[in-house]
Amino acid sequence: MIELGNINLLDVKSIEEEAIILADKESGDEVELNLLVKENKEGVQGLSVEAFVDRDLEGKLQASLKRPDIVMGEIKHCRVVDITDLGAFLEWGLSHDLFLPHKNHRDEISMGDKPLVMLTVNPKGRISATMEIYKQMEIGAPYQKGELATGTVYSYSEELDAYFIAVDNKYHGMIPKNETIGKDMILGEEMTVRIKRVRVDGKLDCTPRKKAYQEMDDDTRKILALLEERGGRIGLHDKSKPEQIKAALNMSKASFKRAVGRLYKQGLIKLEKDGISKSGK
């Protein structure tokens, strides 16, 4: 039986003047190769070929010797190339674009976004994309607490106040919003995450933040760089509002106070009533 949305090993049944007809050996189902015969006779001569099968606009089966960027069962990034009233169209490596209906969105998308999607077959038997990939995620990732992995943001849950991420585009992962230091994550954003906990159910709690000592190293460098940029003094101190610190340094107030404490102990800054300044040391 021919598998829609997948790579099929098909016999070359006939090479006609205007078409190359492929057939499944077991079921006898036929499909027409949607490439120019004159340019591809040599490429399909023989007993069988590997071809991707989907449907044309009229619902007729069509085959391609080119493997698309995504096939059934995979989860991949696909770039948005058009948005219409009916949905979005995605680039997937074939001459025609992949349709993503509005009902298959989880969040709003814009031109140029690269959401994580998988293929599905709609009630009319045609292939389309869906961002509803949660149920496709797997458990049992080969990671332990403290290890680093690659995660892609694919949804946000207001109920849990957390971002869902696909670790290695395959495994269940979640980042609580309080781990992002107030940074709004972008749909489709790919990042390095640290595994904070492997839950009993096999899902992963993650954070984009580094370990405390590594994060403090980064924070002290940010403060020193800002001091250098502003002539050796900045008007931030332990009484400054968190949003002021966030706007200037993109860090939390607690992180700022820890980094300032380290720099002061190292003799690199002086504490003033309404700010900090570089030490003459």
Question: Could you please describe the fold and organization of this structure?
Answer:
This protein is of the alpha+beta class and 281 residues long. It contains four helices and 19 strands. A hairpin with a 3-residue loop joins strand 13 and strand 14. Helix 2 packs across helix 4. The relative contact order is 0.09.
Concise overview:
This protein is of the alpha+beta class and 281 residues long. The protein has four helices and 19 strands.
Overview features:
281 residues, alpha+beta, OB fold (Dihydrolipoamide Acetyltransferase, E2P), five-stranded mixed beta barrel, elongated
Superfamily at the CATH H level of the largest domain? Nucleic acid-binding proteins
Strand content: 25-35%
Please summarize the sheet with the most strands. 5 strands, mixed, barrel
- Reading the helices and strands in chain order gives EEEHEEEEEEEEEEEEEHEHHEE
What is the SS-derived class? alpha+beta
Number of DSSP E strands: 19
Q: Poorly predicted ranges (pLDDT <50, ≥5 residues)?
A: none
- CATH architecture assignment of the largest domain: Beta Barrel
| CATH domain topology of the largest domain | OB fold (Dihydrolipoamide Acetyltransferase, E2P)
Radius of gyration: 27 Å
Q: Average pLDDT value?
A: 85
Our count of domains comes out at 4
CATH class of the largest domain: Mainly Beta
Shape: elongated
